[in-house]
């Protein structure tokens, strides 16, 4: 019975530690503009540069997907990005 209680307590601690650290692991985003004028969200989870390399980063770090969508819509409105 003690081992079962210990296993449950360990599992509970591991689950709570995962829940606490998960938001910290969220990758920030950038908006990039390809040479064609189209804009795309870029997730920084993958550290390698994009390929092909004919793009430029046109926004600062955006923390949430909602910020990405709102910023992209604004840039399309300002005609800094081509609509898809």
Quick synopsis:
The protein is α+β, with helices and mostly antiparallel strands and 84 residues long.
The number of helical segments is 2
Bulk shape: elongated
- Strand order in space, largest sheet: 2-1-3
CATH topology: Rubredoxin-like
Low-confidence stretches: 18-24
Please report the total strand number as a whole number.
3
Overview of this structure, please?
By secondary structure, the chain is of the alpha+beta class. It has one domain (2-77): Alpha-Beta Complex (Rubredoxin-like). Helices cover 39% and strands 17% of the residues. A three-stranded antiparallel sheet has the order 2-1-3, with helices on one face. A hairpin with a 4-residue loop joins strand 1 and strand 2. The protein is elongated, with a radius of gyration of 20 Å. The N and C termini lie far apart (61 Å). The model is unreliable at 18-24 (pLDDT under 50).
């Amino acid at each position: 019975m003690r081992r079962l209680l210990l296993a449950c307590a360990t599992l509970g601690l591991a689950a709570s530690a995962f829940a606490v650290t998960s938001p910290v692991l969220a990758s920030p985003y950038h908006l990039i503009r390809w040479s064609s004028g189209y804009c795309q969200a870029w997730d920084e989870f993958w550290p390698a540069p994009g390929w092909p390399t004919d793009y430029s980063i046109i926004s600062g770090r955006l923390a949430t997907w909602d910020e990405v969508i709102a910023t992209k819509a604004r840039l399309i409105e300002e005609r800094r990005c081509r609509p898809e």
